[in-house]
Amino acid sequence: MLQGLIKISHISPPPILSVRPSRALVDEAFEVLVENLAPVSPFTLRSLHHSEDGDDWEAYGHYFSDHSGRVSVSEDLSFGGTYSGMEPMGLIWSMRPVPGSRTGLRLRKKDVTTPMLITVSLYNGHEDFRGNSPLVSMVTERWYMGPGIQRIEISDEELRGGLFVPPGPGPFPGILDLWGGGGGLLEYRSALLASRGYVCLALEYFKTGQMKSTDMSFEYFEKAYRVLKDHPQVIPDRVGIISLCLGTIVTLSLVAESSDITHSQVGRWERWEHWERLSFSMFNKIRVDENNHQIWRDVGLALLKEPSMKVDVAKINCPLMLVNGCDDQNWCSVETADDISKTMDAAGKGHLLTRLDYPDTGHLIEPPFSPHCVAGNFMVYSSNEKVIQRYGGKTKPHSDAQDDSWRKILSFLRRHLYSERAKLST
């Protein structure tokens, strides 16, 4: 009797990678899950983004699958990579330029009408993953500008900026968005705030590398305020200001010197010109670290000792929030906040101040999950020289501070612009 033998081969199903939600705002968390893996085996998860500047950014974590052949970034530990431990968003906030990239890079979105495309991939093992093909990949979208947001470009002889209007009947509270000494028009924070229910005006007040404007007087900022306040979708008496770095000097001057910015005779820009001249004279206080990165905080400490350079914050009559990085190497943030706190307390206005101080946090406190920039390229307009400024901070605590401060900033804005009648907040 002839008997036949039939050999049955068992083919393992391919791994399944899911990212949920695959399309979300940048301040929203996602979940990364991989299934159908060999049990208790090493794998690497990697995120990769090609920036608008033409640079590649990556983050990766080393994982072991569980007994059922799963890896969950939200529930499992990373045993190394650009982040360690249980970090659901480590594949985003720990991003850094790939090896061999240019120095002094900072990841910022320029065109907010398009998403950041991030590819999440799975690799076998923990070593040499860059030279291997991924087992599975998935492209995710991270947006600053939510569905239905209207972007209006403002570009004339009197004003330059981008206005972002949420969808819906409105009206909404308004926010004037001022950036720092790098210059140029940055819109991503405004787009994100508009996605959270505010009409936002991202204002450009000097060009990149110039620190000059055609009209560097307070009238320029008054004009921006009026454009925002008078917009039909803005509640006129619920307008706030959010700022960073140099923009904070402008903000403090505006809210201290004007109880109603649309009707007062606000001081001219002489203080700016004085600040400009005085700061140049103190550039000899700039230090460099072991990497030849410039540290500017001592310039700020020297300016803080000059009474003529101080804004009279005792005049402030609106709620004020200060967010400070305790390892800020670009400006003396904590010392400045101490001085502001002391002055406002002495004036009986300490109740108006909310202060957030974050240890091991640097200068650039961005929206949640933004990659930490410990040092970045900067154009010194007085000499037309490109340098690398040290901003400070350690990646994990800096990233935690960005997440925590953003939630508290949104809460502060809701409390004072949606729930109460406040004319200016920052």
TrEMBL record:
UniProt superkingdom: Eukaryota
Residues covered by the BAAT/Acyl-CoA thioester hydrolase C-terminal domain: 217-418
Pfam families named among the record's database cross-references: BAAT_C (PF08840), Bile_Hydr_Trans (PF04775)
MF GO annotations: fatty acyl-CoA hydrolase activity
Active site as annotated: C245 (charge relay system), D328 (charge relay system), H363 (charge relay system)
Parts of the chain that traverse the membrane: none
GO biological process terms held by the UniProt record: acyl-CoA metabolic process; fatty acid metabolic process
Domain Acyl-CoA thioester hydrolase/bile acid-CoA amino acid N-acetyltransferase intervals: 27-155
Similarity annotation: Belongs to the C/M/P thioester hydrolase family.
Protein name: Acyl-coenzyme A thioesterase 1-like
Native species: Poecilia reticulata
